Amino acid sequence: MLTLIPVPVRPLWVEFPREQCTFAVEHQYMIGSALLACPVTDPGVTEVKVLLPGTGESWYDVSTAQVFRGGRTVSFPVTLDTVPLFQRGGTVVSRRTESGSCTADLQKLPFTLTVALDSKGCAEGDLYLDDGYSFNFRDRKQFSLRRFSLDRGRLLNRCTDDRGKYDAECSVQSVRFLGVKKKPSAVTAQISGLLKDCTEVQYQAASHMLTVGGLDLDVGKDWEIRIL
């Protein structure tokens, strides 16, 4: 019996095995199941062609939040400072936007979530955390596995593995929602039974992007954000 081990970076055909058009693509890669990257490896290139697989899928340009429909090839302008990178609709990507001098410095830095809506307005993604250097995740179950899920305007943060006992001591500072069709009337956050209005809310109609900042929500606790 063959057991497949998940690989963080893999060719397109691994994620889209039923689409024969992906088999010959050698210059694009999936990073997990959420991000598609097309590195520019030839000198003097000002434009690249990017295959966006999956008929019915949505792909968001990470830099501009512009959405592209899957199942086609698009031409994408590039410079020395840009690499085509797309987030798949229906996914949530967690990242730290600040930098540290070593792994230990990163442990308490806040996260930004990018929530890319699919055609049904839903999205989901996991965040795994441990101390980054020891085997305590294995020997003492010192890890945390959280799941962010969006459905009908509610973004939930929930634990998906109760065995984990790791206190991450970090927060979600802001959330970007991609594919929001209209400006909300209000955005609220609820944690530990306490409800508060989010005041740092920006909506960009041209790109359909909603940004909610100033949250300071503990990653390790259950909470929800509502878009009203």
UniProtKB/TrEMBL annotation:
Set out the biological process GO terms recorded for this chain's protein. Answer: N-glycan processing
Domain (Glycosyl hydrolase family 31 C-terminal): give its ranges: 9-93
Q: Which domain of life is it from?
A: Eukaryota
Q: Name one GO molecular function term.
A: alpha-1,4-glucosidase activity
PANTHER family documented for this protein:
ALPHA-GLUCOSIDASE (PTHR22762), NEUTRAL ALPHA-GLUCOSIDASE C (PTHR22762:SF60)
Give the protein name, as stated in the record: Glycosyl hydrolase family 31 C-terminal domain-containing protein
The species this protein was found in = Anguilla anguilla (European freshwater eel)
